[in-house]
Amino acid sequence: MKFSRTYLWTLSIVFVCACGNDKQKNNVIAEQLKKSISLIDTLKANDTLFINYETHGCEHYFSEQIKIYKRSEGIFAELYINRQGNEIPNPALAKLLPDSSLIAYGQFESKGKVFKSNGLCTTESKFVISLKTDSIKFEDGGCEFDGYYKLKNQLFGQSVIKELYKRTTQTKH
Question: Which residues are registered as beta bridge partners of 54?
Answer without folding.
Answer: 63, 126
